[in-house]
Amino acid sequence: MSNLNIKIMKSKITFLLCLIAVMLSMMVDAQTYVYNESTSSGMFFESPNGGEVSNPLSDAVNSSANCAFSGTDNPFPWLEIQYFPNYTPVSGDKLFLSVYNPNSSPGAQVQFNDGAYFGGNISYSGSGWQEYVIALDDEIGNSITKITLYPTEGTSIGVYVDNIYFGQNSVLAPAENPIVYDETESSGMFFESPNGAEVSNPLSDAVNSSANCAFSGTTNPFPWLEIQYFPTYTPVAGDKLFFSVYNPNSSPGAQVQFNDGAYFGGNITYSGTGWQEYSITLDDEIGNTMTKITLYPTEGTSIGVYVDNIYFGQSSTLSNKSFTKFEEVVFFDKSGKINFAKDQINTSLKVFDMLGRLILDETIQGKTSSKAVSNEGIYILQIEKDDVRGVKKIFFQ
Fold this sequence. Notes:
6-stranded antiparallel β-sheet; 397 residues
């Protein structure tokens, strides 16, 4: 082989190695940060008393030591914060940011490059830190060198902002089947009917063996016997809303709405006997934070239905086999590990915090989990083995 051919081959190998390195780098660093604990992007505050401050609330969404505060001294219409990244979005990219809004600012507007590109409007909702997302489909291929966040217009309501980054997916652990209503979670349930209430489950079967459930009521002062729930959840691609209904008096069906009608879930026609699980696809709600679910079980009638096991997820938690309830004693030890009173063999254990985020997931062999939770609080345990499953709420301190 000639020296020229060897040089050409070496150049090709070098190029391929560089390409592989770039691809691996992209896989490892899937997010490009604009602002967090280590990156400021030349942050500028329009308000004289805006600045970087200590994080006033550490929670599951944001436990950073510091964050940006938009300020309250408002010489111009907006309490804006500016950032100066250098990023060119590709297909599928989004801008993520987290906001803590203790004083009920209505929302924000995001612009890029002094208004050359419009990001979008955000309506704030929920309590604690909340992560919001802006799709960048219209900015693909355009270099973004300035982000302006207008947290509030014409007011002096300051908000806290943190963890701003470009990426395809959120860095927050996705919630696995976050619960809206079941034996452990009520989500502030409200009944429109005066005799709507949580009652004993009138029929325990393979679909629902819970001890209690919600009853829509029969006294009907308005056209709908509605039930309201108040979760905080932002759907991602593939998500659905699942709920189970027992309909012994042949109500024709239900309608589901989100956020006081801002988003329409869909209509459900009831069928079958016993408890039946239904689902609503959330393709039109991707990226929109759900803070209220209204279930209208029947229109213009006084036919009550029973409702239970409402949750967001990619697929149903039910299977074709029937289960018995897990009744064994489970508790935390002082280290945060989960202990079973009896030896376990291939027992599936999932632990969720009260925001519905998956904290721990392992298969238990013996009496003690190998992993531990690190923070005090109330946790939801989802346990399954063979034909036994159960949900338990326990406290770690």
